[in-house]
Amino acid sequence: MSDRPKFFDDLAGVAGGAISAIAGLREEAEATLRARLDDLIGRLDLVRREELQATQDIAANARAGQEAAEAKLGGLESRLAALEARVSALEAPNPDAVAPDLT
Q1: I need a surface site. Which of 2, 36, 61, 85 has the fewest CB within 10 A?
Q2: How confident is the model at residue 36 (pLDDT cuts 50, 70, 90)?
């Protein structure tokens, strides 16, 4: 009878060791797979999500800056057109004006 509990204790020890070894193998397999995938990604010239997001943010900021500059340019062009119209109105001869007497 005393041999039976020792057998179960030994069996439990072997099972615990096997589970520990399987966990170690799993970690090793994950590390190997991760290293191979990183190597594959490096060879394919793929970008990471963070790099893509940063590039998209830069592009969005540049697009917003360009739209703001275009809006400002449109305002400046309309102001220039108004000023040019005023200048040409001042330079145009007025037919109703009396010519000065130069004699």
Answers
A1: 2
A2: very high
